[in-house]
Write a structure and sequence with these properties.
40% helix, Aspartate Aminotransferase, domain 1, globular, 7-stranded mixed beta sheet, alpha/beta, 3-stranded antiparallel beta sheet, 16 helices
Length: 453
């Protein structure tokens, strides 16, 4: 009862400033008392917290974007090497400026951007790159395409980021780079990552594919390591359907990146190295250059709404917002994520909580089903001739034995709660209150969760 009274006081404080918005929705703040239908969980017949309301749509589209695409289409110059609209070159210039980077090279996808960096840094067969299993397959694919070995290490339970303490244990004579992933769009522990890289003379390729405009210690994400890579796939906060970009300040490295993504052909027109054709097309550039106009304002809104959610949800012990490391100035908030602690919800599984929450009109997701250390690509590459040739049997045996990532397994299987934020986090305060109220309503009436089948 004491715990219930305390949570009730916290909740009253959390929603007092927005009572007008709650009243407009037809609901009163949740104050406990299951006999009142307002306090009965919607999945059991009560009134939902959020009803007949839409989240802001994503990807973002306005008439400026339409006009930019139309202009490019009418130019008939749809490939960047044809001149004409030059939308890709314009995007590269403006995106680099927004990130305070000297250079940008645009590609056809975030995976292509990452692989371009791997190739440009000379990483290949026999080399190892340390990264996280809690990511999109594109991260791993960017290493595999060059026939290097992706060494996956476990993650931190509260930040969901690469754990530097485990990274340190996996560094060996074959390690050439660390590829930290700013998962959900928030910064990794870059102080520790960069210190390890400096100590062991390693490259750092920032997988900032979800982290547009986020900042760490005064630097934009993607500009802290040797190079940073972004995805502009349609769900991302700066998007064009598919697309990617590389940013960096090393003149020589970025020149090599351009050459690699241009099928090995340099800006000087010489065919100099191995490379695929990873060029961004002018139609993608047209969408991006027009979308940058609103990117900063949208980034600011997401950060404000994320901070608001975190300030309110700290009063619910069963839901723990993603930990932000010391030095984090801002995130991208591609996703707003939380850890579910079932011991505060009558020990019911996350799936039950998610069902109850969806019935309240706020649908969250577990995000990644399982870490990439659990997928069959591992068996595939360990059976390939090139991997058996370039890596010793002892190393490949050790590699398989070190694929244990219990924290990642726990987060995937039991704890992750995700609000897709590219659109929803552009909502107003009333939208954010709906998220808080739905979660707190379930927490206040958690004993009802045991009745859900």
């Amino acid at each position: 009862m004491k715990d219930r009274e305390l949570s009730r006081r916290h909740f009253i404080g959390a929603v007092s400033a927005v009572s007008a918005g709650i009243a407009a929705s037809g609901l009163s703040p949740v104050l406990g008392g299951v006999t009142d239908t307002k306090d009965k969980l919607a999945i059991l017949g009560g009134n939902p917290v959020r009803k007949d309301k839409q989240w802001p749509r994503w990807p973002y589209m306005d008439e400026k974007i339409v006009a930019s695409v139309e202009k490019t289409v009418r130019s008939r110059a749809w490939c960047r090497i044809e001149g004409g609209a030059n939308t890709v070159a314009s995007f590269e210039k403006e995106w680099a400026a927004m990130l305070n980077a000297k250079h940008c090279v645009a590609t056809g996808a975030g995976t292509q951007a990452l692989n371009t960096c791997v190739e440009a840094l000379g990483i290949g067969p026999g080399d190892e790159v340390i990264t996280s299993p809690y990511t999109d397959m594109g991260t791993i694919a960017s290493i595999l395409v060059s026939r290097a070995l992706p060494v996956m290490v476990d993650i931190d339970r509260e930040s969901f980021q690469l754990d530097p303490k485990i990274v340190a244990k996996r560094i060996n004579s074959n390690t050439k780079a660390i590829m930290p992933i700013h998962i959900m769009g928030q910064p990794c522990d870059m102080d520790s990552i960069m210190a390890l890289a400096k100590k062991h003379n390693l490259y750092v390729i920032e997988d900032a594919c979800q982290a547009h405009l986020g900042e760490f210690r005064g630097k934009k994400l993607g500009t802290i390591g040797h190079a940073g890579c972004f995805s502009h796939q349609s769900s991302k906060t700066v998007s064009c359907g598919e697309g990617g970009s590389i940013v960096g300040n090393d003149d020589d490295l970025m020149d090599r990146c351009y050459t690699v993504q241009n099928h090995g052909t340099s800006r000087r027109g010489k065919h100099e190295t191995i490379g695929s054709k990873y060029r961004m097309n002018e139609l993608e550039g047209a969408i991006l250059i027009a979308q940058l106009v609103n990117a900063k304002e949208q980034w600011k809104r997401r950060n404000e709404n994320a901070a608001y959610l975190t300030s309110k949800l700290k009063n619910c012990p069963g839901v723990v917002p993603q930990k932000l490391y010391d030095g984090t100035d801002s995130g991208s908030f591609y996703l707003y994520t939380m850890g579910y602690r079932k011991e505060h919800f009558n020990n019911v599984d996350r799936s039950v909580f998610l069902k109850a929450l969806a019935a309240e009109g706020v649908a969250l997701s577990p995000y990644i089903k399982n870490g990439l250390h659990k997928e069959s690509w591992i068996d595939h590459i360990l059976g390939l001739k090139e991997y058996r040739t370039m890596y010793s049997p002892a190393r490949l045996k050790q590699y398989r034995e070190e694929l244990d990532c219990p924290v990642c397994d726990r987060i995937c299987g039991e704890e992750m709660l995700m609000l897709w934020a590219s659109g929803p986090l552009l909502g107003n305060q009333s939208d954010m209150d709906d998220v808080v109220n739905a979660i707190m309503k379930i927490y206040e009436n958690r004993e009802q969760l045991t009745k859900i089948k």
